[in-house]
UniProtKB/TrEMBL annotation:
GO cellular component: plasma membrane
Segments passing through the bilayer: 12-30, 196-218, 230-250, 270-286, 291-311, 331-350, 362-385, 391-413, 447-464
Bilayer disposition of the protein: Multi-pass membrane protein
PANTHER family the record matches: DNA INTERNALIZATION/COMPETENCE PROTEIN COMEC/REC2, RECOMBINATION PROTEIN 2
Protein name (Swiss-Prot/TrEMBL): ComEC-like cytoplasmic membrane protein
Lineage, top ranks: Bacteria, Pseudomonadati, Elusimicrobiota, Endomicrobiia, Endomicrobiales
Compartments reported by the entry: Cell membrane
Alphabetized UniProt keyword annotations: Cell membrane, Membrane, Transmembrane, Transmembrane helix
Organism for this UniProt entry: Endomicrobium proavitum
Length: 542
């Protein structure tokens, strides 16, 4: 309680977060209450829209995709974000003001609970409809001056990587340094996921921390005092965020680091929890629904884990004096501190735990800092002379190839990542309480509190066994009836579409895995023989 009174940002954040959770529970953020365009989705006629492109168009299969801020819809003033799909031949860019004609659609929804729901994901970004373009007319261009040139810098850096590096190296360097994942292959992405390293391909807190250190070192080298260096670093962090696309993870990190740097410049203790709460509050005031996104939650929970557990874990390595061993111990402590609190979050959102990440992060993460620093130097060298730029590119290529090799090595282990059932909120809460009790109390109290929490967990797990029920899950053309009786599960899956839905088999298998259902009586109707067999035998592959 004293902490809350002394740290008003934490108090305000908690109150605000609880308010948002209450509003969400009451349906305030439901798409039908937030979107006016949903009323036009079922219209059999085309919709005419005017507005501006507010994101950098990205290439997708058979076309381009971008976020469009509407200003006029069928002659009426409506301001709303939509996700637009257009042919690849359309020459459009960030800031273009367009008149579009086409059909509004509702984003795809998961056919079963517990699965990733694309519609909900977009809704949390305040996007409730998609739009397929049939015709467009260019009106004018009104880009934000700063963002326009930031995106031009991003494209120029990506082009330089393509020119100086092999395709494989450029594929890794672009997302790490400027957040450009357009050329990232599925195989590469899967390898990084299985090795527990996908976070390094997303510009976030790790990248911002490295960039902060690079610019602080540069300003000190130029003779600025430490206080001035702290303040001068802030605009460059925001510029870096814009260059990388100003995605939520990097913006969160930049705001948090900026709060800490301002505290340091004012000779105030950088109260990390207060800075975390203040940065989260600023983000949620602008975009309230980010509170419910996996990215937001994982960013802050990982940071809290590092801040809280790191020093406690490092006490185990007090006797280590060798600089190299100490560095490895520190990297391990950071990784473990973050993973302690991330484990249940990863289970909840992805149904997967990476077992190899503790080892892979110790080796790979330090290399990312080197790649980022050398990558920035390389870019500036390309404007001075090609020969030194090529020499540095060779060095960066060696490091990148080593990262790729090690990532593939870690990913090939059979149990690098294991699939698990998704926990509910109560189980996750008990886990967090157990983790904090192990590190917060000493001697008898530690065993007493952790023992009580474990006991509560076992009691809840026993009481939470599924009761007799009939659940019906409806999606376009497919109805799934799930019956639970005496602990036994049975499914009747009816496909009423005229075509065979081959993708449902994989979705159904994921649902069974996330639900911890290993045995069930399954009947599939309306599918091809091959797809029906996959559905009926889904439990055998778990």
């Amino acid at each position: 309680m004293k902490l809350l009174l002394k740290r008003p940002a934490i108090t305000v954040f908690i109150i605000y977060a609880l308010t948002l959770i209450t509003l969400d529970y009451c349906g305030f953020f439901a798409p039908e209450k937030q979107s006016l365009l949903l009323n036009l989705v079922n219209s059999k006629t085309d919709v005419n829209i005017e507005g501006k492109i507010i994101s950098d168009p990205e290439p997708v299969k058979n076309g381009k995709r971008f976020i469009f801020q509407t200003s006029q819809v069928n002659g009426k003033t409506i301001s709303e974000k939509i996700l637009v799909n257009c042919p690849a031949a359309y020459n459009v860019s960030y800031g273009d003001v367009l008149a579009l004609e086409g059909r509004l659609k509702i984003p795809l929804q998961a056919p079963l609970p517990l699965l990733f729901n694309y519609r909900t994901y977009l809704a949390r970004e305040n996007i409730y409809t998609t739009f397929d373009v049939k015709y467009f007319e260019f009106i004018t261009s009104k880009p934000s001056f700063i963002k326009k040139y930031a995106l031009l810098i991003q494209k120029d850096i990506s082009n330089k990587f393509d020119a100086y590096f092999s395709k494989k190296c450029a594929e890794i360097l672009k997302p790490i340094i400027v957040g450009d994942k357009s050329s990232l292959e599925k195989e590469t992405r899967d390898n990084f996921i299985d090795a527990g390293l996908m976070h390094i391909l997303v510009v976030s807190g790790l990248n911002v921390a490295y960039v902060s250190v690079i610019f602080l070192f540069l300003f000190k080298l130029l003779g600025f005092s430490l206080k001035k260096a702290y303040l001068l670093c802030i605009p460059f962090l925001f510029l870096y965020a814009l260059i990388t696309g100003a995605q939520p993870p990097v913006m969160r990190a930049v705001i948090m680091f900026s709060c800490m740097l301002i505290s340091l410049a004012l000779d105030r203790e950088p109260l990390i929890y207060n800075s975390l709460a203040l940065s989260a509050l600023l983000i949620l005031i602008a975009q309230p629904q980010q509170l419910f996104g996996a990215s937001f939650q994982m960013s802050y929970i990982a940071t809290i884990g590092i801040v809280y557990f790191y020093s406690k874990i490092m006490t185990l390595f007090q006797s280590v004096n060798n600089p190299i061993l100490k560095f490895l111990c520190e990297t391990f402590a950071v990784t473990l501190s973050a993973q302690i609190l991330l484990i249940p979050i990863c289970m909840y959102y992805f149904g997967k735990i990476s077992l190899i990440s503790f080892v892979s992060n110790i080796i790979i993460v330090p290399a990312i800092g080197i790649m980022l620093a050398l990558g920035i130097i390389f870019y500036f060298l390309t404007f001075i002379s090609r020969i030194p730029a090529e020499g540095l590119a060779y060095v960066i290529s060696l490091i990148t190839q080593a990262v790729i090799f090690l990532t593939e090595f870690f990913a090939q282990f059979k149990y690098a990542a294991i699939n698990v059932a998704k926990p509910d909120i109560i189980k996750m809460t008990l886990y967090f309480l157990f983790a904090f009790s192990l590190f917060s109390f000493k001697d008898k109290k530690r065993f007493l509190f952790s023992g009580l929490i474990l006991s509560a967990g076992f009691i809840y797990a026993k009481a939470a066994q599924p009761r007799d029920a009939v659940n019906v899950y409806k999606s376009p053309y497919i109805t799934t009836t799930h019956t639970i009786k005496n602990g036994n599960h049975s499914f009747l899956i009816e496909n009423k579409a005229r075509y065979d839905n081959k993708y449902y088999a994989k979705s159904f298998e994921e649902f069974l895995r996330y639900s911890a259902i290993k045995k069930a009586d399954i009947k599939a109707v309306g599918f091809s023989k091959e797809t029906a067999e996959k559905i009926v035998n889904a439990t055998k592959s778990l």
